[in-house]
Amino acid sequence: MPVKPLPLRPWALSSLAAICVFGLLRGLPLQAMRPGAQAGAHHAAAHPNRHLLDLLHTINPGEIQAGRWMSRHAKNTRVKRFAAMLERDHARADHKVKALAAFQHLPLHVIARLQHQQRLELQQLKKAGSRADRLYVRAEVRDHRKAIAKVRAMRKQATKSRVRALAGMMIPQLEKHLHAAQALEKK
Question: How far apart, in Å, do the first and last CA atoms of the chain sit?
Fold first, then answer.
């Protein structure tokens, strides 16, 4: 027995068409627009460009805040200069991330788990007293190693050449920060 299609009201058809067209313009795969599809289920797989920009956009403000605090409160002048450099470089980087996201029409989101971890680390720095310089430098070595690895891996998955190019520009900057932190750690 043939299956009889459900009758669609004219307004329902136009609404469904509008949802599909809007979704296609936003770059969503058709599977994500089907009824019952989870909004965030395809985020990392379908939007590697946005995911990479989200990561960079989350990292930068945390580095800016920690750098600003340490540039004012560090005991060692080398650590103060290092922190000021991180604050300045990450502010420039975040400006580039925001500009590219706007140009590509990609909404930026903060990765809550990473942002929470950054806040906890800043609170620990503020409570560390005389150990703050050492704690900050160690955290920067660890965090920059992780960031370099993540950005490299996510750069390979990015589909837009401008996003890949931005990540390619960020990696040497992150490596410069890592080397500076390692040099401070040795002293």
Answer: 82
DSSP state of 31: G
Residues 6+ apart with CB under 8 A from 106: 47, 49, 50, 53
Q: What is the pLDDT of residues 126-176, one digit of tens each?
A: 999 889 999 999 999 999 999 999 999 999 999 999 999 999 999 999 999
Separation between Cα atoms, residue 170 and residue 65, nearest integer Å: 19
The DSSP secondary structure of 84-150, one letter per residue, reads: HHHHHHHHHHHHHHHHHHHHHT------HHHHHHHHHHHHHHHH-GGGHHHHHHHHHHHHHHHHHHH
Q: How many residues does the chain have?
A: 187
CB 46 within 8 A of CB 28: yes
